[in-house]
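Students often ask why we bother encoding 3D structure as a string. The short answer is that it lets us treat folding as translation between two languages. Here is a chain of 149 residues written in the first language.
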Amino acid sequence: MRERKIDPGRLYGYTVCLVAAFVSLFALVRLTHGILDIRELEYTPTYHDSGPSLVSLGAYKLDVLGRGGLGGAGGGEDAASATVAAVSTTSGFARMYEAERLYRLALAHQASRTRIVVSLVLLMGALFLFGSHAVWLGRLSVSEEAGGR
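And here it is in the second language, the structure alphabet:
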């Protein structure tokens, strides 16, 4: 039985194609998440994971007062009374709530756009690498067949 030699060029080409296929799948998943997130920003982790609760104005008030203010420092009663004194009316809390909500929407929108752009760049790079190496492997096979005759 004839021993078969491993061609380093062919091994390299197939490895690049395999890695590019995995990167393409990864980029497609991230791209899908980014597109879905940008359609419903209020349900993204970026929107929910920072700052006081935005479920309702009442929850926002309780969270701000319970945390000792907007800074999240947990300064105790002094910080809570300073927050209450600064925003003693419901309309004051409503303005703060709306400002926080708009800020978080902007953060979530930026995070989703960044995810989409990075995923598209990754996908295009992976597809280029896959395509160029697949063509190169095809030419390598044709040249070996022509040389083997």
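Translate back mentally: The CA atoms of residues 56 and 97 lie 9 Å apart. Keep this in mind for the problem set.
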